[in-house]
């Protein structure tokens, strides 16, 4: 009866072994004092006659005041722009306050009404048994760690609401009730233990099927609140109060460490594959357009742009030509573009250039880091274009460029795997020529010519290789081919193209004239004249 509070300090009591025939006030008995000051009695008193819940009242008041203030359209837009949980802004923009501030914003009246109901219902009870300071730390850490888990696992979404704190309160009430079930008076049991645990699990399951619910935020708040409460004891007695303050200080310190850890968290990347080019991009960057008109991945925070592109040219292109083409594209944006650095690089046996540029756009300076690689008729670009002062994003190019890989383009890989006698050899030669491997291409063609000496296709392939990669042997090669197959129109066309590419247009025109005289009205001759000599 003392533990239940039925016998108060002034209640007259009589016990033969203690008082004999006398009735005395209960507080005169040493036994009463021991029972009256026990944790069980103090906890029951805190739950049945709690002190004023200062923190709970302040929290609910602040939440309601912010909601009322945010109902103006312009105010709500500003709050949504700068204070919601939004991973790109947190990690790219170093806006770590969002991991707390989102817990004070709500979407509509129903949203805030539900959250404040939970906070008021459970906060009053929890504040009575763990104290205002511990409850404040528990709420803040639940909101923070709920925001962290949501930021990592739902990086593209905006989140608002105090529900991570709600789930922290639910978990704390469940843990307290399970640990101290024997101390709970009957009137407090609906707020603690199994009842709350069942309701919390029900809310989690319901969240899985509902739209626009941040379930990872709920889970993070639940884990933080439950773990914190598992370390606390009822806030009664000087020793337990001091212990709870130390535990809550450590939890607050760990939350601060969490903020510092988020400040060092790298921007997560996912692979991007182009034909013969593998690079990485930030996971939440969306498709858009670069300043050069290329398709790009664009940052939702500061307008950073990443181009990962493979260009297929009709003829082989040099690194110098590809670099100049990229510079011309930027000169159309800013004619005064500045080249800060131009370095020769190599990756996977492919030569390229690393350019560092600066240009003006819309009144601000932007910085460009670009990798340009060429192999045969393939041009590979990785272009990182960001504002000059864009914090952590500006340094991202190092990781992006380290991740670049240049595997074989798909068509080339298929050609390398080709079989089927001399035709397979020609297919492999074509693939090798496409990536500029002239030695391998010529060896495959020579092998095909030996395997099929009477076929024109290997000779035509050799002339096509000479047109793509001309050298001083082209005239002799064309003479040999035309002598061996004097009537074949395809050989004539291949030889003429090789001669023009090698810088022998007069010889090519002489060959066309000779064929035109021998076969008047030959349409192939007329077409080549128009195409190659603009006649």
Task: Explain the overall architecture.
This protein is α+β, with helices and mostly antiparallel strands. The chain folds into 4 domains: 1-36, no CATH class; 48-264, Rhomboid-like (Rhomboid-like fold, Up-down Bundle); 269-407, Protein Transport Mog1p, Chain A (3-Layer(aba) Sandwich), CATH 3.40.1000.10; 411-533, Tetratricopeptide repeat domain (Serine Threonine Protein Phosphatase 5, Tetratricopeptide repeat). Helices cover 55% and strands 15% of the residues. It is built from 23 helices and 13 strands. The strands form 4 sheets. Strands 7-8-9-13-12-11-10 form a 7-stranded antiparallel sheet, covered by helices on one side. Strands 1-2 form a two-stranded antiparallel ribbon. A hairpin with a 6-residue loop joins β8 and β9 (305-312). α4 runs antiparallel to α8 (109-130), α19 runs parallel beside α21 and α21 (489-501) runs antiparallel to α22 (505-518). The longest helix is centred in the middle third of the chain and has 27 residues, at 238-264.
């Amino acid at each position: 009866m003392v533990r239940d509070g039925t016998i108060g300090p002034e209640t007259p009591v009589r016990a033969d072994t203690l008082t004999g025939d006398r009735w005395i006030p209960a507080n005169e008995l040493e036994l009463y004092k021991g029972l009256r000051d026990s944790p069980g009695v103090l906890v029951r008193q805190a739950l049945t006659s709690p002190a004023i819940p200062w923190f709970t009242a302040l929290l609910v008041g602040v939440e309601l005041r912010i909601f009322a203030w945010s109902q103006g359209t312009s105010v709500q837009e500003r709050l949504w722009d700068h204070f919601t949980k939004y991973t790109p802004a947190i990690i790219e923009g170093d806006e770590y306050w969002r991991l707390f501030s989102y817990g004070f914003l709500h979407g509509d009246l129903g949203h805030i009404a539900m959250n404040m109901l939970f906070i008021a219902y459970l906060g009053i009870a929890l504040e009575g048994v763990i104290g205002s300071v511990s409850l404040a730390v528990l709420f803040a850490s639940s909101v923070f760690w709920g925001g962290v888990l949501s930021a990592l696992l739902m990086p593209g979404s905006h989140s608002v609401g105090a529900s991570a704190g709600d789930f922290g309160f639910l978990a704390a009430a469940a843990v307290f009730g399970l640990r101290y079930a024997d101390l709970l008076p009957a009137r407090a049991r609906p707020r603690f233990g199994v009842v709350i645990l069942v309701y919390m699990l029900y809310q989690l399951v319901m969240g899985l099927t509902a739209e626009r619910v941040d379930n990872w935020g709920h889970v993070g708040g639940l884990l933080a609140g439950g773990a914190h409460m598992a370390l606390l004891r009822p806030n009664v007695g000087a020793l337990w109060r001091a212990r709870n303050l130390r535990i809550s200080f450590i939890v607050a310190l760990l939350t601060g460490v969490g903020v510092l850890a988020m400040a060092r968290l790298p921007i997560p990347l996912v692979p991007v594959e182009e034909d013969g080019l593998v690079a990485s991009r930030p996971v939440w960057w969306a498709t858009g357009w670069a300043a050069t008109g290329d398709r790009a991945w664009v940052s939702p925070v500061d307008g950073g742009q990443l181009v990962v592109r493979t260009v297929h040219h009709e003829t082989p292109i040099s690194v110098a030509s590809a670099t100049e083409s990229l510079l011309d594209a930027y000169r159309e944006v800013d004619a005064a573009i500045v080249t800060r650095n131009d370095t020769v690089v190599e990756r996977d046996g492919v030569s390229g250039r690393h350019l560092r540029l600066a240009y003006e756009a819309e009144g601000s300076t932007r910085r460009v880091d670009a990798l340009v690689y060429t192999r045969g008729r393939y041009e590979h670009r990785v272009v990182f274009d960001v504002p000059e002062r864009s914090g952590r994003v500006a340094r991202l190019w190092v990781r992006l460029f380290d991740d670049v890989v240049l595997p074989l383009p798909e068509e080339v890989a298929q050609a390398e795997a080709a079989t089927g006698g001399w035709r397979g050899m020609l297919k492999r030669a074509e693939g090798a020529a496409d990536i500029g491997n002239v030695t391998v291409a010529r060896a495959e063609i020579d092998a095909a010519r030996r395997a099929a000496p009477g076929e024109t296709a290997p000779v035509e392939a050799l002339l096509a290789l000479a047109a793509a990669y001309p050298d001083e042997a082209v005239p002799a090669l064309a003479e040999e081919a035309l002598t061996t197959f004097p009537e074949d129109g395809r050989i004539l066309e291949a030889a003429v193209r090789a001669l023009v590419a090698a810088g022998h247009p007069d010889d090519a025109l002489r060959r066309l004239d000779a064929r035109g005289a021998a076969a008047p009205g030959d349409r192939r001759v007329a077409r080549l004249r128009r195409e190659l000599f603009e006649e």
